[in-house]
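Homework help thread (please don't just give me the answer)

Our assignment gives two proteins as sequence + structure token strings and asks us to describe the second one. The first is just a warm-up. Here they are:
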Amino acid sequence: MPKLTLDTNDPLILSVGGSLIVPDGGPDVEFLKQLRELVLKSIGQGRKIVIVTGGGKTARHYIDAASAVQKISDEDLDWMGIHATRLNGHLVRTILRDIAHPIVYKNPLAVPPVNEWKGNVLIGAGWRPGWSTDFVACRIAQLLDAKSVVNLSNIDFVYSDDPRINPDAKAHEEMRWRDYRKMVGDDWSPGLSAPFDPVAAKFCHKYGMSVAVVNGKKYDQVEKAILGENFIGTLLS
């Protein structure tokens, strides 16, 4: 099983897939409770945490609805997804309001140094077209000198193919960025479904960052990943 090398003096960067926050049927209250529990436990161990929220089914429903009415530009579709990420960001900040910085940051380049936070947790969301929330999380990580990102998704591993379609798809415990990028390409499009955004992958490859892809519903594995222990999931490096 893979292991993520983390410096506990660095802030913990979590890119939380919107599919975990808002799957079909509305916000997942049980997941939100687990997320709060995980955050409280981590800050109790002295960690500072950044959480960047994805758009989930809210983004997908709005993108699909607009596209069904008429042809929409990628930029306009992206803006709908971005606003969904911000709504999710406000939801997460609200359930963490007693320990979180009061502002949900859209621009990852404007995030303040950790010693200027008003709380132990900072929430980020989508910024502008062409930037996925994975990419936002990676840019914040770079700004705060963190070398790793933990990506919480609704899958157990990065697979060679969609396992829902191809039962012979191979689960990868570890992948090099060059191999991952060959698989997913380098381009971003609104509503893209990929284990980790191709643009963010290109950025991490360039700057030598590592990403742990973990099933966010498996609390024990997420905890192991953020503690630097062997976890069930995929390490991209």
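The one we have to describe:
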Amino acid sequence: MRIVPAGPEHFAAVLALNEESVSVLAPLTRGRLEALHRRADDHRVAVVEGIAVGFLLAFTDGADHDSPNFRWFAERGAGFVYIDRVVVAPWCRRAGVGSQLYRDLIAFAVEQGRSRVTCEIDADPPNPASEQFHDAFGLVEVGTQWVEYEPGHPKCVSLRELSVTDARA
């Protein structure tokens, strides 16, 4: 497996991966993906035998990003890298793809001088697989909030963070 910078040649695969997991994350159109990609500070794809099997899209604290979860962290201080979304193909889960994407992002955070990595996971309705992964990786809950990515479909998210100092220990 290789982790490579995402580019337009990966967009079809990224959109397909996102759609496969849309029940646990925000929908994504090609236009939205292109806009996020232009503003992202880190957008990586996990590739196995020429096939994109996962991706991670992240923003540093000073980015121009409209996510309510990103804004929640931004209101509470600088020095973070926010994971907007991470998706792994269903047939590759539990094979280390997500862990490798996170390790790559932690290295990026350290390189950028950021002190923490942040994200959110669904709390209500719950996403037990994501909760287990993030707990194992050491991302701890620092808050919760209700968001509505689609009208009429509110959800409560668990806002998580990891000190990169702790991650390197």
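TA reply:
I won't write it for you, but here's a hint about the kind of observation we're looking for: The chain has six helices and seven strands.
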